[in-house]
Each structure stands twice: as structure tokens, then as C-alpha cells.
């Protein structure tokens, strides 16, 4: 294993990174070799990702990776879920992909639900209702000008992987977020594709995490300096799937919170829970690595803070985020909370004002200062984390002894402590880069260098990490 190197491309809605994973006798060591910003911008009447620009950042990152490490074995790609690019018959991208926060699906949700009853949708896909799930986006797309020219759709990590290798496949964990995959068989649902008038071969065939997609295109190898034998290996290309692999759990009795732009809160199960109660609680059964089920809910996340900071920076001098967080932490407990899942908080715009309204809707008084608003966000996130963990247990019958908080939010000591206090459980925080870690671990495992069993794999990862422990106050 000594010195084997893997590369992770991990792109979230607000930032991306290319990370080297060096495997030696003490474990898998991560080095971020390139970071870049991301964000959707309004172009041509829609909120869009600059995927072409992101691909240029990927190449820059891979170039930095090659310069630092000769002999990179493979590269894996993950991004956020549900979004896709449309290709014409010549394989060219027809337009920069529309971002999931765009409002275009508002008018088609009812139409979709008239074609397929929501109860049937849940029974087949097990997917939480979110207005931006791919099936709604595609239904909006069918009414649009590009549709007659569409030959194929590729989910975003698959599209980046295609630009690196020339190979077109749909990675299975991300496919599970489309609302078009059967949660029980984990194959495309012919029933739903037909009911929605979508071609059965709209997406390329599935590929499972750990399978090799193919070697780099000669031109990509030349431009990055990577060896032409470097392959792209499928990983949990849905960032949350990789984050869950990267949860450094000791045994199976764990809950996780992957805390980034969104908060993904739940359990890992052996099989989906497709009951009416589960649907009523809006829990999702996303596909995990090794056929596991990621039983979770999307809760609001750090987007609420990011978007507030962005708004304040537009109004005047950019606020000092660390100072604001410190001031928020110094405020007394028991302040107002709001529903972090309010649909009204999904779109970009004046977030502080919408949060103030949400607080008032919950019977509180609007936060008088920026610090108070930040505190209300953190208190409300922790309330959501505690409630959702308990709900996941009740609905699945699986117990969680500890809560692992991973991702950017794991840096926030106040959020971790509040989660411990409100959930009454020990919270273990870290790593921040759980997603890149899970991406790299699946590659190293595919190379035969880490344990095949997911539990053993996680224990190996844990051995190399320093986790922070938060015990519930008063216990
Ligand atoms: C997190 C995430 C969530 C998904 C949302 C939109 O980054 O991938 O799992 O619901 O973004 O794609």
C-alpha cells in the first residue's frame, strides 16, 4: 500500500476541491491540492451552473495533483445530486445546466402528481419529496425549447467523468436521487419513465461505486500531466453518498449529520423503508455504497448562513464571519427557532428577511441583531438534527447510540454541542472533508488496498482521524 495515491474531485454547491489521498501504513492522508468557488448564476432567465468553468477548475486541480504526485492510480468524482446536463446527438452539451434552486419546477409538480400519484412515486422510488428532484426538472424541460434536440441526459458528476474519459454511464447512488430509480431493485423504473413521457434510455446505463469507468482521454492526460493509465473509478458520486462512507463509525449503531450547504440527517440501513408513515415524515431512501440505504431527510443547512452573509455583503462591508459566529455563541440559550425546511428558504435572495419572517411564523420575535439571527440559525439546525435523528430511529426501528457530525458544520463547536444537548446523545465531530475521504476510500478499496467490508473500512479510516467529542450538557 505504501504511498499509493488517489485523486478526489469533490464539488459542492458553494465550493469545490481536488484532493490527493495518500495511503500509507498509518492510513489515508488527505491533501487539498486545489480549491475553487462555485455558485449558480442567473443566465438566460434561469439559475445555472457554469459547468464548463467547473471542468476547467477540475483540470487545474488534476494538474496540481499530477505535479505533486507521480503515478496517481485513479480519480473519483462527486458533486451535489439531482442536476444534469443535456447532450445533443453529437454529444455536445446543449446549455449550461439549470441549478436545482431555479424556480422552474413550481408549475410542473402538480402535473407530475396527476400523472403518477405521489403515494405511488414513494412506493417505487422511496424518495423524499423535494420540488427539485430530477423528475420534476425533466418534466419542466419537456416543455422547453431544448427538448427536441436532447439525445441524452447525464448527471453532473457523470458528465465531468465523461469529459475526462469519453465514457457515458450513470453512477448508481446519484441515480437514486432522480426519482426515476426503483428503490427496491435499484434499476431504472420503466413504469415512471413511461408515465412521465421520458425516453427509457434518457440516462446511460448504471455503474456501481468501485467499478472502473475507464482511462483518461489522451488529451486530458496530456493537458494535466497525469499518466495516461490513470483511470476514473466510480465512487458514491452523490456527495452525500461519499460523505456517509466517510463517517468514521465504530459500529453500525450510528446516526449521521452531513452538514454542508444542506444538512443530511439520518441512518444507514440494509433496506429501504417505504411505509406511508415514512412518506408522511418525508424521509428519503437514497442509494448508498454497497447497496446500503441512506435513510435520511434533507434539512436546511449552512446555505442559510452563506446566503445571509452574501446578502449583508451586498448591503455594505462584508461581515467577519468568525466574529459573528463568536458573538452568536456568546448569546444566551433559549432564543427563537424556525423551520429550517420552509420551502421559502430554498431560493437565493434576501435571506435575513425570510429568516425573520420564519421566526415570526413560529411565534418568535425577529432577531434584533445579525448575531441573534446567526444564533437562531444554529439553534434551529440543532433542533432539526435532534428531531430528525429520533424520527429516523422511530420509523426504521434501528437505534443510534452516537451522532456523527461531518462536513463543514462539524467545525462549528456550538452547533455540535447544541446537537448533543438537544438529542441527548454523544456527538462525534469530524472529519470536515468526509466527502472527499469517502470518495478516496472507495477508490483505495477498489484497488484492493482497504478492507472490503464497509464497517471495517470505516474503522480503518477512524484510526487515522482526530474526532472531537461532545457530551450532552448535564449528563
Ligand atoms: C448535498 C446534496 C443533497 C441534495 C442536494 C441537492 O450537497 O447533494 O444530498 O439533496 O445537495 O442536490
UniProtKB/TrEMBL annotation:
Q: Enumerate the spans annotated as Carbohydrate kinase FGGY N-terminal domain.
A: 7-246
Q: Which InterPro entries match?
A: ATPase_NBD (IPR043129), Carb_kinase_FGGY (IPR000577), FGGY_C (IPR018485), FGGY_Carb_Kinase (IPR050406), FGGY_N (IPR018484), Rhamnulokinase (IPR013449)
- In this chain the Carbohydrate kinase FGGY C-terminal domain maps to 255-447
Give the EC number: 2.7.1.5
Q: Which Pfam families match?
A: FGGY_C, FGGY_N
GO molecular function ontology, one term from the record: rhamnulokinase activity
What keywords is this UniProt entry annotated with? ATP-binding, Carbohydrate metabolism, Kinase, Nucleotide-binding, Rhamnose metabolism, Transferase, Xylose metabolism
Q: Which CDD domains match?
A: ASKHA_NBD_FGGY_RhaB-like
Similarity section: Belongs to the FGGY kinase family.
Q: What is this protein called?
A: Rhamnulokinase
Amino acid at each position: 500500500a505504501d504511498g499509493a495515491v488517489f485523486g478526489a474531485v469533490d464539488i459542492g454547491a458553494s465550493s469545490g476541491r481536488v484532493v490527493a489521498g495518500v495511503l500509507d501504513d498509518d492510513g489515508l492522508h488527505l491533501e487539498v491540492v486545489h480549491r475553487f468557488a462555485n455558485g449558480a448564476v442567473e443566465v438566460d432567465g434561469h439559475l445555472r451552473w457554469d459547468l464548463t468553468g467547473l471542468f476547467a477548475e477540475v483540470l487545474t486541480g488534476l494538474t496540481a495533483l499530477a505535479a505533486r504526485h507521480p503515478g496517481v492510480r485513479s480519480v473519483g468524482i462527486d458533486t451535489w445530486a439531482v442536476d444534469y446536463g443535456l447532450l445533443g446527438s453529437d454529444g455536445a452539451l446543449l446549455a449550461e445546466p439549470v441549478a436545482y434552486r431555479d424556480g422552474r419546477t413550481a408549475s410542473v409538480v402538480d402535473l407530475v402528481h396527476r400523472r403518477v400519484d405521489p403515494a405511488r412515486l414513494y412506493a417505487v422510488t422511496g424518495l423524499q419529496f423535494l420540488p427539485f428532484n430530477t423528475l420534476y426538472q425533466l418534466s419542466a424541460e419537456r416543455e422547453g425549447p431544448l427538448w427536441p434536440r436532447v439525445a441524452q441526459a447525464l448527471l453532473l458528476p457523470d458528465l465531468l467523468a465523461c469529459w475526462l474519459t469519453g465514457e457515458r454511464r450513470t453512477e448508481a447512488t446519484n441515480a437514486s436521487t432522480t426519482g426515476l430509480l426503483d428503490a427496491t431493485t435499484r434499476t431504472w423504473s420503466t413504469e415512471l419513465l413511461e408515465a412521465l413521457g421520458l425516453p427509457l434510455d434518457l440516462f446511460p446505463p448504471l455503474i456501481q461505486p468501485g467499478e472502473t469507468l475507464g482511462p483518461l482521454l489522451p488529451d486530458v492526460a496530456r493537458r494535466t500531466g497525469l499518466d495516461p493509465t490513470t483511470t476514473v473509478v466510480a465512487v458514491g458520486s452523490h456527495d452525500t453518498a461519499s460523505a456517509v462512507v466517510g463517517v468514521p463509525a465504530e459500529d453500525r449503531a450510528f446516526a449521521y449529520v452531513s452538514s454542508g450547504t444542506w444538512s443530511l440527517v439520518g441512518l444507514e440501513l440494509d433496506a429501504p423503508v417505504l411505509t406511508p408513515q415514512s412518506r408522511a415524515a418525508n424521509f428519503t431512501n437514497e442509494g448508498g455504497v454497497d447497496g446500503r440505504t441512506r435513510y435520511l431527510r434533507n434539512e436546511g443547512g449552512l446555505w442559510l448562513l452563506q446566503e445571509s452573509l452574501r446578502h449583508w455583503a451586498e448591503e455594505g462591508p462584508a461581515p467577519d464571519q468568525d466574529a459573528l459566529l463568536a458573538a452568536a455563541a456568546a448569546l444566551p440559550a433559549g432564543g427563537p427557532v424556525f423551520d429550517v425546511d420552509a420551502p421559502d428558504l430554498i431560493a437565493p435572495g434576501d435571506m435575513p428577511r425570510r429568516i425573520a419572517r420564519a421566526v415570526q411564523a413560529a411565534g418568535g420575535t425577529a432577531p434584533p441583531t445579525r448575531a441573534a439571527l446567526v444564533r437562531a440559525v444554529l439553534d434551529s439546525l440543532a433542533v432539526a438534527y435532534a428531531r430528525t435523528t429520533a424520527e429516523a430511529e422511530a420509523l426504521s426501528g434501528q437505534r443510534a447510540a452516537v451522532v456523527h457530525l461531518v462536513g463543514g458544520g462539524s467545525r462549528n463547536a456550538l452547533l455540535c454541542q447544541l446537537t448533543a444537548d438537544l438529542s441527548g446523545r454523544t456527538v462525534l465531530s469530524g472529519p470536515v472533508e468526509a466527502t472527499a475521504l469517502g470518495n478516496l476510500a472507495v477508490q483505495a478499496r477498489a484497488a484492493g488496498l482497504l478492507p472490503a467490508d464497509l464497517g471495517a473500512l470505516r474503522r480503518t479510516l477512524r484510526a487515522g482521524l482526530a474526532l472531537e467529542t461532545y457530551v450532552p450538557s448535564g449528563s
